[in-house]
Amino acid sequence: MLQKFRYHILLHLVIFMWGFTGILGKLIHIDAQYIVWHRILIAFVSLLIGLYFLKMPMRIRNRKTMLKVFGVGILVALHWIGFYTSIKLSTASLGILCLSTTTLHVTWLEPLVFKKRFSPVEFLFGLLVIFGIYFVSDNFNEEQYLALGIGLLAALMAALFSVFNAKLAEEVPSSAITLHEMGIGLVFISGMLWFNGKLDAALFQMTWSDFGWLLFLGVCCTSFAFIATIEVMKRLGAFTVSLSINLEPVYTILLAIPILHED
Questions:
Q1: pLDDT value for 136
Q2: Which of 19, 94, 142, 158 sits between 20 and 30 A of 100, alpha carbons compared?
Q3: Alpha-carbon span 34 to 105, nearest angstrom
Q4: Whole-angstrom Cα distance, residue 179 to residue 227?
């Protein structure tokens, strides 16, 4: 029981850190795709160094499992691109609020992936989040509705990679999963930037403030948080984790009031 309580504490520490991610989407003054590229690069490098010195597992030897991780890595990159694009188009509060619908998707995805019984109670809890979005979206303009749509798609991708990671964690150490997903995500988004003609010197044009926030985002909010979340998911389950993550918008909205003056 005490060990389970410790995992709940760790989970909420991670959620509080994630509360900053929406804020950072506004504080970092570079393009959304550039934010994701730097976030994944910093996370990948810090993971590589950290896992090496901590002597944690880094390899995935099974080819079939590697293909699954490859797909999830792309989902992670697409999720972050959608998330930060939504924030850039609207507010940190709305972008993070859209992520609350992740729980709703997990309620039907988890039974499919884990072959478990569908829970109407869990689905009802997930559905309640929709009312929260309704209350804050009554005076939207066209751009904000676009932000809402992109944010909701990002939430679906978050649900997909959360459930798939929980399944993969049964076979592969979470450290190896996270490292490979960051590497695959980096290659994928680099390809996207190259295809769009954005893989150039502009990628590194930023202030020292932007660089500092990107380091915090990549090391604390990504590499550490990702490994911790997968470990917690193995102990508490994907639904418990995704339901708890609904506190993330609360933290973000409270932080946005003094930092970004969003109310």
A1: 63
A2: 142
A3: 28
A4: 9
